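Suppose you are handed only these lines of text.
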Amino acid sequence: MTDRYAVIGNPVEHSLSPAIHAEFARATGQDLDYRRILAPLDGFRAAALKFRDQGGKGLNVTLPFKHAAWNLVEAHSGFAMDAGAVNTIDFREGGSVGHNTDGTGLVRDLKENLGNPLRGRRVLLMGSGGATYGVMEPLLRELPDFVVVANRTLEKAVALVGHFEKFQKFAVRGIAARPYSALAGTRFDVVINATSAGLADVMPPLPDDIFAPDALAYEMVYGRRTLFMKFALERGAKTADGLGMLVEQAAESFFIWRGVRPETKPVIEMLRKK
Ligand code: ATR
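From them, the structure of the protein bound to 2'-monophosphoadenosine-5'-diphosphate can be written out as follows.
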C-alpha cells in the first residue's frame, strides 16, 4: 500500500513540500503520497492524530505548529529536544517521534550547496524566535569561532543563549546575546536572518560595516530578494535565500521516513526555474 505523508500548517496552501517530496519519491523510486493539511489554529493536535489514526506515516510541521508538535510527540530525537520545536514527525509502528531537521538543512545548504563551512567562522544570527531555536544546536556543532545572537528584544536573545549554554563549548569563543546597537565594530563571515522581518520586508538595524570580506548573508525566507539581501549586496557580501535550506530539511525528513537520501541539487534547480 502507498505510504501517506503530509505537511500540516496554517496557512499551508503555498507550501512547496508536496512538490519537493513528490520529486524525491520519483527520483528514488519510493511509493508514497504527500499532501497538505490545513489545521485550524486551535486544532493542530486533533488534525495530526486523525492523520495518524487513518494510517498516515509521517508529518512535516510548519508554522505556527512546530512547538505544538514538540508537545504532541512521545519522544524527541536529535536536535528536536533542545530546539523546543519539531518539524518532522515519524508515526511508524504506532508511536510518534519528533525530529527537527531545519538546522541540518541550513548547515547542509551552507556547506554543500554554498561552499560556506561554518568551522572557525564568525556567525551572526538575527532573531530569537522559533527559527533561531531550531538551528542553534546544529550551527554550534559545526565548531564556529563564535556565534552572536542579535535581537530587537534583548531579553529574548539572552534567554536563548542561556538555553543553549551547554553547547557553548562547541564554539571556540562561545556564544553571546547582543542588541543591534552593540554590533558596530564586529565583523562577521556569515550573517543569518532568522527574524520574521524578511517576510514583512523590514530591515533589522544592522551597522554598515557588519560584513567581513567575502561574507555570506543568508536569508531564511525564500523566493524573493528581501531588504536584508539588498543591504548585503550593496555592501559587497554574497547572498543566499532559504530555498536550499527548505529542500535540505525536506531531504533529511525523507531520509528519516524512508531510509533513502535523495539528491537535492536537481530539486533546488527545478524550484528555481519555476
Ligand atoms: P519565528 O518562529 O519565525 O522565529 P517569532 O517567534 O515570531 O517567529 O520570532 C520572530 C523574530 O523576528 C523575533 O526575534 C523578532 O524580534 P522580537 O523578539 O524583538 O520581537 C524578530 N522581528 C520581527 N520583526 C522584526 C523587525 N521589524 N525588526 C527586527 N526584528 C524583528
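What can we learn from it? The two ends are 32 Å apart (CA to CA). The pocket of 2'-monophosphoadenosine-5'-diphosphate is lined by residues 127-131, 151-153, 156, 195-197, 202, 204 (CB under 6 Å).
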